[in-house]
Every structure is written in C-alpha cells, then in structure tokens.
Design goal:
Radius of gyration: 31 Å
Pfam families: DUF6880
Helix content: 55-70%
Distance between the termini: 49 Å
Number of helices: 26
Structural class: mainly alpha
Length: 471
C-alpha cells in the first residue's frame, strides 16, 4: 500500500459523500494546496494544448529568478520544480509526445543557465535532471511515425550543448529507443568526427563490429581504454582467441602508451580470455604474476576459478605467502585476508602484534575497515583479537586528540567492552575494568570523551578518581 493511500475505512467514508459534499471537499483542497490544484486542473480539467501551455508557463515562472539560491534553498527549489513538472508531464507525454519532447529538450538545454544561480553542491538537482532525461527519452520513443534518422538527430542535438549525464546511459534505453536509433546516433557522432562518443556508445550497446571496423580503418583507438572495451566485448562474444592477440599486443606496446593505461585491467581481461580458451596453466601463471604486482584479491579469485575443489587449500597458501613477503605491504596483505575471509589468519596476525603494538593496525587499514574486521573476528569466534582491534581504534583517536571523532571512539569503546565480556583477564590482555582504568589514567584530560562515554555506554560511570565499568 502506498504511504499516502487512504485506509479501507477512510475510502468507505469518502464513498458515502454526495456530489455536493465532494465538490466542497475538492474546492477546500485546491484552495489550500497548490500541488493539489495543479493535479486536478492538469489531470482532469484541461485539454492537451492547455496542459502544454501550463507546463511552459509554470516552468518559466519557477525558473526565471536571478537571485542566488544557497545549498538548502537549491534542494527545495529543485524538489518543488520536479514535483510540479512531473505532475504535468506524466499526463501529457503519452498524449503529445512530439510537443512534450520539444519542451523537455528546451528544459534540458536550459539547465546550465538555471543552475548558474544555484549552489548545486548537494546534488539535490539530480532527481529533477534525470527525471527530465528519462521523460525526454520516453517522449522520443513514443514518436512512432517519426523516422529513425530524425529521432537520432534529435538525440545528437542535445549532445551539442552542456549535458550532465553519461552518454553510456543511453545503452540502458536500448529496449525503449531501439538499437537502430542508437546505431544511427553512433554513426552521426562518427560522421561529425566525434570518435570518443561513437566508441563509448558502441560499447554501451555492445556493437563489436564497429570496434573492429574502426580499428582496421584508423589503426589505433583515440584512448587506451577502448582497447580494453574491445577486448571485453570479444570475450563476451566468445572470441577470446582474438582478445588474447589484442591484449598481448597491448602489453608489448605498453611502455609506449599513455600512463593512463590500466595495466591491471589488461591482466584481468587476459586471464579471463585464457580461461575461456581453456588455457588454465597460462591463466594461473598470469594470476600469480598480476597478484605479485598488484596484490589485488580478484586475481586470486580468478586463479580459484581454474581449480578443482581439492586444489583450493594449496592455492590460498600460495597467495598468502606471496602477500606476506614484504613488511611494507601490510595494507595489501590485510586487505587480501579480509577479502578471502581468512579471519583465523587475521586473528594470528593481531595476536602476534600484541597489545602494545596492535595500534599499528590503524596504520595499515582505515578505521571503517578495521571496525568490519573486528566485528567479523568476533562473529568468527575470536573475541580476544576483536577486542584488541577496538581498543586500538579508541587509542588512535584519543592519542591524536581528534575530538571530532570522539563519537566513533565511544562506539568502539562500547564494542571493546562488549567483546571483552567474552575473554578472561590474563597476562596478555587486561580485563575490561583494568583496561578502562589504564585508559582513563592515560587520557583523563579528554573530558568531553569521558562525558560522552558515560552518557552513551551502559555500565560506564565516572567520579573524581576514575572511570568504572559495571559499578
């Protein structure tokens, strides 16, 4: 049921009103609610031509202001404009698609002017703008008597001005607009020497033959990423042998290509192509070579795809050994362990650091990741290491005196105490109370932290002598 829909009882009461009573209700609604008035008039009381005129009038009235709108005013402005336009446009587009498309085209092209006096940094304009884009495409798709070249040219004209959506978005409307129109648009881009747009659109509609024809004719792509797009399409089209030749050639020339070329993506596609061709040994070696260079877990996952079930145990050991070779790669080593969910190994790693050095984990991974690691360690049956990680996060914030992060440190303190309930006081780790006493002794001047901890963490209390847990 929609949030604003009447309940069954309310619907029954409404049905009992006579005509005069309903008219009185309607007049009361439209007197007190502008949107209700627009909905009633545009939806039920206007001819199509009048709705179009009302859209134009309403848009000009709302968009003409030249004063500057701040961050919050901009969000309100676009939200109200979106609501008022949608009410009208949703009604008229199916009835007058050509006329609606002309209006929508104007609004899209007018967006740059209108946004010059708005603080658009919040992104609140996007719902309105993408509604215009989708409505414009819908209006184009409903023009059944308009030939495909004309529709393609209408699309092309929009891309001659400022626009704020990716051309590849059109690929999502293949079924709405039809492939023929999108191919026509691509050809128009190419005819106007807009090769980048032609290739981007060809990739989004998976037109592999255009890539082949383009490369045969031009001898090279405008940007290196199009080699990768072409290779990806070849693999999807079960032409992995051609993809391998293309990618190997790229690797040979890579030192001469722009630095923006994504070498790890080359390796990923080359591995996939070899797997598709049944070249498992070649794929495995490429996975190892790529992992040694990039320490990215996806190369392990690709390696794993080439293995039988009984081979996976030795594979993870091989990759763990590679990842653990160099001290300077602690960050990548830990990320790899997290991605492959080897919390037993992470537990050993944390415990080997010890309570005095566990703070180093905050140098290796960002706090949000460390929190996920701690939670996963606890769920996996390792409360000791989970507690140490949370304590390290608390110490990191307090040690830096980063007061703006105190709320996160208090949350970490709470988790450390919760997890600490599952461990016993030993020589290696202090009990909750011993830990809290030591933490207070070290950071007792952080009054705002302790005040927040007492407020937010059940069981924590304070007096002039210290901090207590469960007192």
């Amino acid at each position: 049921m929609m949030k604003n829909e009447l309940s069954k009882k309310q619907s029954e009461l409404l049905a009992n009103f006579n005509k005069e009573e309903l008219l009185e209700i309607i007049h009361a609604l439209i007197r007190n609610n502008e949107l209700a008035q627009i909905t009633l008039v545009s939806g039920y009381l206007l001819e199509s031509e009048d709705i179009l005129k009302l859209i134009e009038k309403e848009y000009k009235k709302r968009s003409k202001s030249k004063r500057f709108f701040d961050y919050y005013e901009t969000d309100t402005f676009f939200n109200e404009l979106h609501n008022s336009m949608a009410t009208l446009l949703d009604r008229i587009i199916p009835l007058k698609p050509i006329e609606s498309e002309v209006l929508l085209s104007y609004m899209l092209q007018d967006f740059e002017r209108m946004s010059e006096t708005k603080d658009t940094s919040s992104g609140g304009w996007q719902d309105y703008y993408y509604y215009l884009v989708e409505s414009w495409i819908k209006a184009l798709s409903l023009q059944k008597d308009t030939d495909k070249v004309t529709v393609a040219n209408k699309l092309f004209n929009i891309f001659q001005g400022e626009y704020y959506f990716s051309l590849s978005l059109l690929g999502e409307y293949k079924s709405t607009l039809g492939l023929d129109i999108l191919r026509q648009l691509r050809d128009i881009f190419y005819q106007h020497k807009k090769d980048d747009e032609a290739l981007e659109l060809s990739y989004s509609i998976k037109d592999i033959e255009f890539f082949k024809t383009y490369l045969d004719k031009e001898k090279e792509f405008l940007y290196p990423r199009y080699y990768l797009d072409y290779a990806e399409l070849l693999i999807e089209d079960v032409r992995s042998d051609e993809a391998i030749v293309l990618l190997e050639n790229i690797r040979e020339k890579n030192n001469k290509l722009p630095v923006e070329f994504n070498d790890d993506k080359i390796m990923e596609l080359l591995i996939k192509a070899n797997i598709e061709e049944g070249k498992k040994e070649e794929a495995r070696q490429l996975c190892i070579d790529a992992f040694k260079k990039y320490y990215n877990h996806r190369f392990y996952k690709l390696y794993e795809n080439t293995l039988d079930k009984d081979e996976k145990g030795s594979a993870i050991k091989l990759f763990l050994d590679i990842a653990n070779q160099y001290e300077e790669n602690r960050f990548f080593y830990l990320l790899f362990l997290i991605e492959v969910e080897r919390f037993d190994v992470i537990n050993d790693y944390v415990l080997n650091l010890g309570k005095d050095n566990v703070i180093k984990i905050t140098d290796a991974i960002i706090p949000s990741t460390a929190r996920k690691v701690s939670s996963s360690l606890y769920k996996s049956g390792f409360p000791l290491s989970a507690t140490l990680v949370r304590r390290a996060l608390v110490e990191d914030v307090l040690g830096r005196g980063a007061s703006k992060y105190y709320k996160y440190a208090v949350s970490d303190l709470k988790k450390s105490l919760d997890y600490g309930e599952k461990i016993q006081s030993t020589d290696d780790i202090a009990s909750n109370q011993t830990y809290l006493t030591a933490l207070y002794a070290k950071h007792k001047k952080k009054a705002s932290f302790w005040s927040l901890a007492e407020e937010k963490v059940q069981g924590v209390s304070m007096d002039k002598d210290g901090a207590y847990y469960g007192k």
